[in-house]
Design a protein that fits this description.
7-stranded mixed beta sheet; Rossmann fold
Length: 373
């Protein structure tokens, strides 16, 4: 199979779908790999590094899309990239379609086979192994950037996360105790903050409670508790996820008027529409905005701030699945692995993920005829 990896074109996105080590694995398996020139420059991988691993360099993304049987990326295809996709071509990347009707229609029109990292499941259908490494990065970053924007000169209320003797630390409210929320809480606790995690899963609450052993409070999530907790929290981190679907709206606009001026909100769920009513996607170039005195940090590709760490972690997770698609072909790979099959979001003009279809109010096809046959 011919595997293509274009340079990411989303604003301030320096990650790359394939690092040289991944290229070498594909080449060892007998596949041809095409890399767009400069694709890895943002994390110090040169074209020569890719050539040494066995890749061929192409000058433009257009050449990559025209030649490759499978495209491996990091971020969702931008409008110009959607137009370059073609029928039967496999696209393997993050898609986050539930909040992006334009991209969804672009993929439908291309009739490509679009497999989303974020809906591939782990053993027994549990966990999201290709989302987990980026959730870990985003979760850890959320506490760090939140602490930064709490500083007065950044518009925050001027609270030090860890406090000092005689002065209490910042109160951090983490909405969601999944991978991102756990990592946000872990770093915030490590910074000395007063942390509360809101979670609904009873088994997960017990796991979190056992791990933190009183260093973080674990509380059952309810609308009533959230409404009260936001009034005295200094940093609020939104880390809820419904695989493939829009994130639930947990913090409403009227709640902002009850918060302290200079409170910071970090919405990790912004890729899925965000879990704050007032959230709108921002970029690393212009990461924050303020409404009713509350700072909103809603960068849609948070892990892009640390692209070297993020790209290496993502490649490690993606490689076994990508090799399966290349070695077996997409149909056989999906038929043999139900967890990988759950990553199929759009197939030859049809939406094949229920959560995406319901979020966008579009038709859902459970099993594409190509697989049913």
């Amino acid at each position: 199979m011919i595997i293509g990896c274009p340079k990411e074109i989303k604003a301030q996105e320096h990650r790359v779908g394939m690092v040289p080590a991944s290229v070498k694995e594909f080449v060892t398996h007998g596949h041809k790999v095409l890399i767009e020139t400069g694709a890895g420059a943002g994390i110090n991988f040169s074209d020569d590094d890719y050539k040494a691993a066995g890749a061929e360099i192409r000058k433009t993304a257009k050449e990559i899309f025209a030649e490759a049987d499978m495209i491996i990326k990091v971020k969702e295809p931008q409008p110009a990239e959607c137009k370059m996709l073609r029928e039967d071509q496999v696209l393997f990347t993050y898609l986050h379609l539930a909040a992006d009707v334009e991209q969804t229609k672009g993929l439908i029109d291309s009739k490509c086979v679009a497999i989303a990292y974020e809906t591939v499941t782990g053993p027994d259908g549990r966990g999201l192994p290709l989302l987990a490494p980026m959730s870990e990065v985003a979760g850890r970053l959320s506490a760090i950037v939140g602490s930064h924007y709490l500083q007065k000169h950044m518009g925050g209320l001027g609270r030090l996360m860890c406090g000092v003797p005689g002065v209490p630390p910042a109160k951090v409210l983490v909405l969601g105790g999944g991978v991102a929320g756990f990592n946000a809480a872990k770093v915030a606790v490590g910074m000395g903050a007063d942390v509360t995690i809101l979670e609904k899963g009873h088994d997960r609450m017990r796991q979190l409670d056992d791990y933190f052993r009183g260093q973080a409070k674990v509380v059952y999530s309810s609308a009533d508790y959230i409404e009260k907790a936001v009034t005295y929290s200094d940093l609020i981190i939104g880390a809820v996820l419904v695989p493939g679907a829009s994130a639930p709206m947990l913090v409403t606009k009227p709640m902002l008027k009850t918060m302290k001026p200079g409170t910071v909100m970090v919405d990790i769920a912004i890729d899925q529409g965000g879990c704050f009513e007032t959230s709108r996607a921002t970029t690393h170039n212009d990461p924050v905005y303020t409404i009713d005195g509350v700072i909103h940090y809603c960068v849609a590709n948070m892990p892009g701030a640390v692209p070297l760490t993020s790209a290496l972690a993502l490649n490690n997770a993606v490689l076994p699945y990508a090799l399966a698609l290349a070695d077996k072909g997409w149909k056989k790979a999906l038929l043999e692995d139900p967890n990988l099959r759950r990553g199929l979001n759009v197939c030859k003009g049809k939406i094949t993920h229920r959560g995406v279809a319901e979020s966008l109010n579009l038709e859902f096809v459970e099993t594409p005829k190509e697989l049913a046959a």
